[in-house]
Amino acid sequence: MRLDKLIEERLATSRKEMKRLFQQGKVLVDQQIERNPSRNVDSRLHEIKVAGVLLQTRDVYYLLNKPAGVVTANKDHQHATVIDLLQPEDRQATLYAVGRLDRDTEGLVLLTTNGQLGYELLHPNKKVPKRYDVIVNGPVTAEDVAAFAQGIVFHGGVVCQPAKLTIEMTSGRRSFVHLEIAEGKFHQVKKMFLARGKKVIALKRVAIGPLELGDLLSGEYRNLTQFELESLANYFR
């Protein structure tokens, strides 16, 4: 949560009063004077004191296993959404999906009210790795692995960043592979394989940065653990 928004909500300060608090060095994060009003904080990671008052944040973080057929949106008039998978008491208008997935793609989606964290995780300069399990038609070869490592070029000349492709199983009819990328172009994974003459049959995201899907069942979700939240600490800016 943005520090200035937290102060405004918890202490009911005016903008002028808040500015004075920062100028007077009365805003402390982890016992250090904080001058940046837009600093992203969470009381489970940081000690936040303003004029001697200890403040608590209320952001939520849900790790969800999105099934195929569900859209990554808060509302949709035709299809079920990731928000529909939550219990009524967990649905909030301010929930933000970190890393959208196509309707026919399944796997890990992070839902949070901390939009600033989502922005950091998705920013191209951060190069946060995203890992996928992929089934494609036809064989995947060592030449494909080398092409992904060099950087796939889409039809039209768009060049992707180097990606790590690992072959789990391949045959004449289909292949099961693991893919790790550090960017998020529109329909990127499908287009990467299409550029190599292959079609994605099934696609599942299994990790975003340090967050892993693990054995979470399709359609289920859970709160991030304290360990998982701490693993994201470097993205709180």
Automatic annotation (TrEMBL):
One of its GO terms (cellular component) is cytosol. It is an enzyme of class 5 (isomerase). The keyword RNA-binding applies. Gene3D superfamilies: Alpha-L RNA-binding motif, Pseudouridine synthase I, catalytic domain, N-terminal subdomain, RNA-binding S4 domain. Its EC number is 5.4.99.-. GO terms for molecular function: RNA binding; rRNA pseudouridine synthase activity. InterPro entries: PsdUridine_s_RsuA/RluB/E/F_cat, PsdUridine_synth_cat_dom_sf, PsdUridine_synth_RsuA/RluA, PsdUridine_synth_RsuA/RluB/E/F, PsdUridine_synth_RsuA/RluB_CS, RsuA_PseudoU_synthase, S4_RNA-bd, S4_RNA-bd_sf. Belongs to the pseudouridine synthase RsuA family. This is Pseudouridine synthase.
